[in-house]
Amino acid sequence: MNYPSNKTRLLFLKAVKLVWESAPGWATANIFISVLRSIFPLVLVYLIKQLVDGITGATGLGGEANLNLVIWYILAIVITIFLDEAATSLGNLVRNKQSYRLESHMHNLLHSKSIQLDLQHFENPEYYDSLARAAREAPYRPNTIVNNLISIARGLLSLLLMAGLLFYLHWVIVIILLAANIPGIWLRLHYAGVLYNFKREQTPAARKTAYFKWLLTGDRPSRELRLFGLGDYFANLFSKNFRELKEEEIGIIRKRTSIELITGIFKAAAFLLALWYIAKETVSSQISVGDMAMYLVAFRQGMVYIKDVFSSLAGLYEDNLFIGDTFEFLNLKEQIVAVPPVIEPGSLNKSINVSNLSFSYPGTGEPLLKNLNLEIRKGETIALVGANGAGKSTLVRLLCRLYDPAEGKITLDGKNITHMDPASYRKLFSVIFQDFMLYNLSAGDNIRMGDIFTPQNRERIKTSASQTGIDELIEALPKGYDTVIGRLFDDSRELSWGEWQKIAMARALYRDAPVLILDEPTSALDASTEYELFSRFKEITRDRTSILISHRFSNVSLADRILVLDKGIIAEEGTHDELMKAGGIYNEMYTKQSSGYKL
Question: Residue 441: which H helix or E strand, with range?
């Protein structure tokens, strides 16, 4: 995959901008130290020449002055080596500091983008591939680009200085130095593209391998894994996928290594030619022994620097391939936004209206909801009933504007909700979802998650817990509301599924929103607790508009209106008594459930 040059430059500039934004001070320090380090090798090579010539002179003449000069050169070499080592160590510290700042910055960008994206992205496997590639490359690729640019600049400066010395000896030596490294550069560029294409194509397989790993090590699958004896089965699937991924990658690396051995022959031959010429010039007294040492070190260092420069260039090419994956994810667009003219949602004063609404999830065919019309009046309680897959939870997601309908509209007090900021509009709703979250935080924080942006109110937390009947259990925990619940961390206490559901309900009640939506709120509660909860239902929903989804018809009979969804449409509507008299779908479902209780 090759980007056009203008796109390459754009990606580089974006990456450099990210690095600069994350830590401008550390980036400046990194550049300064890198330039400083490029000067030390030339100084060292010159001092070695002077030392060798000084030693030769002292040996031949036996003069004390020459010996003193040798000592000064030795001290100068030692000091230069120390400064070079110190600069290297300091440079490592600076790069680590810069990398830490950049990694934190990139994680923030990825997390910010992920929480802003519409839920429709989470319905698409390609989104997870894009996220996986971005999460893999984002923390370090921008920094690698900058480090490679700095390495190129430092290497070029050092290479030019060394090449200048070698050119003074003979220009052919410089040509040999450059030509010996061309095969290695071609190799790096070629296999950078091969490895990138391999990793991109293997992203789904890599995610599948990670999934099997989660099945083997995660808490949620651990019970079924043991009960059904699935451990070896998934371990074999993991091993098979992991082995296929790695064997193909190792095969590519093996080919690259074989060719690298051949390119090493070119470098050795180049050094042989240079060594032969320098030795010949020394024997014929064209250059001194010190010059010989200087040129040999310069040639060897020149090979190191040219390798660094070309490796960094190849690294930039590789980084360019991979950084595109990060920006591909960061450039994903949100579709659920406020459409101009933007209006403030306000509060619910009259009603929420659903008009001619149709909706289907991405990648599916038949619409789940079809030409739906519905009015939810302020202060009333409505119940949504119907078979699984009838569209009840989907309608709730549309009302909360977690999705936008394909056709039709939803209005709040006559105003189209697409003209409202989604985050502001959603503050009108408090929802306990059927698949509610379990936060491994304190019991109090679990409840406070319902309204995290307002100052913590201990009394509100306790009131919400009391309304769902979980307050006594929380008070009995070792640290009360400060006890961490879950099993991931030390000093925590695990709850039953029904207790977790009460926590989730308390969280929904803690949010002071005008619309309360309860999606199967008592599915994990025992009959006694459920009865106690719904006996206080009117108190809990007082001054709120409520939407109740439940398969237990003894509960939905409390609603002011009951809507029966069937195959994406509202098939029936009315009170419990009205629907029973109608003898339709509701009557049939209620009768079947009631007869089941009598068996």
Answer: none
Q: Report DSSP letters for 550-596, one per residue.
A: -S-HHHHTTSSEEEEEETTEEEEEE-HHHHHHHTSHHHHHHHHHHHH
Distance CA 57, CA 38 (A): 30
CA distance 372 to 385: 15
How big is the chain, counted in residues? 599
Which residue did the predictor score with more confidence, 22 or 599? 22
Q: Are 462 and 506 within 8 A, CB to CB?
A: no
- Are 329 and 130 within 8 A, CB to CB? yes
Q: What is the pLDDT of residues 444-453, one digit of tens each?
A: 999 998 888 8
Q: Is the pLDDT of residue 474 over 90?
A: yes
Q: Distance between CA atoms of 55 and 48, rounded to whole angstroms?
A: 10
Contact at 8 Å (CB) between 434 and 522? no
**Secondary structure of residue 452 in the 3-state scheme:** coil
Asked if residues 559 and 382 have their Cβ atoms less than 8 Å apart, the reply is: yes
> Residue 184 has what pLDDT?
64
Return phi, psi of residue 415, to 5°.
-105, 130
- pLDDT tens digits for range 101-154: 877 887 788 778 878 877 777 766 777 777 777 777 666 676 677 777 777 777
Instruction: Decide: 359 and 367 in contact? Cβ < 8 Å.
Output: yes
Gap between the Cα atoms of 448 and 457, Å rounded: 8
347 φ, ψ (degrees, to nearest 5): -115, 175
pTM of the model: 0.69
CB 559 within 8 A of CB 537: no
State how far the alpha carbon of 72 is from the alpha carbons of 54, 63, 84, 419, in Å: 10, 15, 18, 79
Per-residue burial over 28-54, b = 16 or more CB atoms within 10 Å of its CB, e = otherwise: ebbbebbeebbbbbbbbbbbbbbbbbb
Residue 335 CA to residue 435 CA, distance in Å, equals: 24
Q: Please state, in angstroms and rounded to a whole number, the distance separating the CA atoms of residues 36 and 31.
A: 9
Task: In whole angstroms, give the CA distance from residue 517 to residue 506.
Answer: 13
377 forms beta bridges with: 351
Q: Each residue of 525-561: pLDDT tens digit?
A: 667 777 777 777 777 777 889 998 887 777 787 888 9
| Domains, the chain | 15-330 (1.20.1560.10), 338-428+513-599 (3.40.50.300), 437-512 (3.40.50.300)
Is the predicted pLDDT of residue 580 greater than 80, yes or no?
yes
User: What are the C-alpha distances in Å from 141 to residues 137, 321, 348?
Assistant: 6, 10, 48
> Distance between CA atoms of 291 and 466, rounded to whole angstroms?
89
Q: What is the DSSP letter of 318?
A: H
Q: Which of 169, 414, 406 is nearest to 281 (CA)?
A: 169
